[in-house]
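Researcher: Here's a chain I'd like modeled. Treat it as a single chain, no partners, no ligands.
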Amino acid sequence: MLKRALAAVGPSWDARAGAADRKFAALAAANVARPGQILVVSDERTREFLAPLPLDLLPLQQEMQEELKELGVRRLGELAGLPGGAVANVWGRTAGAPGAWRERRAAARTWPPPAAELVERLEFPTRSAMS
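Model: Modeled as a single isolated chain. Structure tokens:
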């Protein structure tokens, strides 16, 4: 399906696609894929895939990004590897509650599996149907 979608978009756009079990990993895969590339990340490789990616992929306020970079955190893997207390003050101000860092890290690792499979179907007209 992803191949068909990229083919339908054509070469005039720098279209790329990412797929993964987790939404953030899929978005990160699409972000780092080359134009015309489909990048699929298995659940078993998600942590390994995300670790070297830049911190800029996270939807954080610019101030938070800068503070983390001042702490020497520039990659997602570096952020995931920090103990909760190392950034509790920084994260707590943004999240509004102590322990928010620990809760977010735990939630990122233990998302429940989807209750049902969600399937999206895209159909593109062929050239003969468009004439």
